[in-house]
Write a structure and sequence with these properties.
The chain is α+β, with helices and mostly antiparallel strands. 45% of the residues lie in helices and 13% in strands.
Length: 718
Amino acid sequence: MNQDFDVNSAARNWRVDTTPSASPLEVVNDLFASDVLTLEQLKARLSKSAYKSLQATVERGAQLDASIADTVALAMKTWAMEKGATHYTHWFQPLTGSTAEKHDSFLNPAGDGVAIMSFSGKELIQAEPDASSFPSGGLRATFEARGYTAWDPSSPAFIIRHANGATLCIPSVFASWTGEALDLKTPLLRSIEALNSAVTPALELFGASAGTRVGSSLGAEQEYFLIAEEYYYRRPDLVMTGRTLFGAKPPRGQELEDHYFGAIPDRVLSFMTDAEMQLYALGIPVKTRHNEVAPGQFEIAPIFEHSNIAADHQQLIMQVLRTTARKYGLVCLMHEKPFAGVNGSGKHCNWSMATNAGENLLEPGDTPHENMQFLFFCTAVLKAVDTHQDLLRACVASASNDHRLGANEAPPAIISIFLGSELTDIFDRIVSGQGGSGKSAGLMGLGSSVLPEIPVHAGDRNRTSPFAFTGNKFEFRAVGSSQSISFPITVLNAIVAESVSELTAELKAQLDAGQSLDEAVTALVKRTYQQYQRIVFNGDGYSDAWHQEAEQVRGLLNLRTTLDAIEHLNSPKNTALFSKLGILNERELAARQEIMYDIYFKTVNIEGETTEYMAQTQILPAALNYLADLGKVGGNRAAQAVTAEVSAAADALYDAIQALRVQNEALGGDEVHEKAHHMRDHVLPAMSEVRTAADRLEKVVSSKLWPLPTYRQMLFVK
């Protein structure tokens, strides 16, 4: 397969022009959520009482009535079989960060050569997968294998199609025999309840009606790279680790800044359209697609959804992108830094809170300085982020994200909040007692009568902030591209729930003392902003001056690596937070920390061994073969000079390989914590030395002998 891939020869399942009598809009409208068992679909298939019971659970968080399970299971099975499904699976998110599924057939032998298709309420509500091979962080011994998946009715069932059929996927949670959460979804659902319990009392003080429910909403931007499939399989590092462990900087990378928002190559656009149509069928409201900063880098983004649905949809987006890319001779790379020296990939999580009536609690409105409710909740977020900056850093910590955080392309490891000039001015005026708003939006003329005047935001954007207010939401930009968003959302829900609860108690005390609502909120906002103002930074988060100011003047944490961050995860403060909110108990939180150490160790260990293998068996032999070829030239002056250069680089590579081998074999101790630190402190530096020598050789060894596809070849998709 060569780079000049024929788009027309790709097997495409989705085309908007296959039905000439229907417009593209009609095709998409008919397609959207067609493979999702929505409440509307269930309404037509359930009795009125069963539907109302399920609706109360899904929309109002009522306790699930197990007596309706058989009715729902029958409707689910019938619908799935109409869609071509022969099997079902409880689809869940274990602590690996990806998804898991065990397929069971609807078919049940009935004897005498007869079989029936059945699916009971008992099978819907609970399944028993083997829990021994999933990470548990010590919650379960390996020989204690029993685990349970349980149906999550708040997330709709859906169909996943493959070349020979379809499977009914039932979103589920995963727990141990002792009832402890072994997944990412259970804590997320608990955090949503905690947020609702914390925010609704606050809303009551602002006059909200009884029965109001609150949840978090989220829209996650997914960045990714595409490379030709043939190059992928010729790179053991990409296959084994998801990133290139070797690769000299190409003559051209992203320096010309011509890729960002550039014209999308036809092959890539065909892939994107195919993927989008599949995502539409799954009810995923993807909205945006474009070229990203680096060559070969792209982005897809859905609009806002309830956060538990958004978490499921994010996993499906990654799955669909990966599988669809193969149909076009491409491989989709989700690693945070697959190529050194060019822009890395993140997953910006746009988070907000909203009521069941659709009111966004972080919407400032036209007069934010007068919007007491908005100022209250915005202040609560400031307090939450300052108090739990360690937890926000820890929830995005991974060996792969370490390559991205702190570089001049992504948020620094120091957590801060960008408010923008308008909001900062409002808070400053509240503190000074001035009140009012000194900055406002206006219109901008563009210097030509044919161009319209356009509305101008009162504040600019800041692309260097890890946590930025962007109009009516906060954008958490430090989340990694390969990461599940469930834990970051859980953390955001939890820290804001705690903060809102504490501020609500203060506000209620002031109101009980006779203050008016405006007076009480103004005093509370002023006091809270003064206390947590250090977390607000609207400047350049990449600058050395900010790092110095953040640490030495403001006292903010700078947790530079994953291991620096995750040691804070189960601190007494964080353990108390999750415990009192009923999100994670002490054992569940400690287990997650243990798993993060283990994954870090294994990730770098695999990278270290892969580096050693490739350098020893591919790169060093290429250099020696080139030296042998040069020796045949004789006494030519150029040959002698090149021979000396290649020989020196080969010697440096050989020495670096031997040093890395020593570190790979040492492992650093028996405990996973010791092993993880050994990987960071010894294996990663040794890998860097090997790469430096190898990349030097790539620039001088004959391209005919070089064994690996280069950055020059891989980054520019045709």
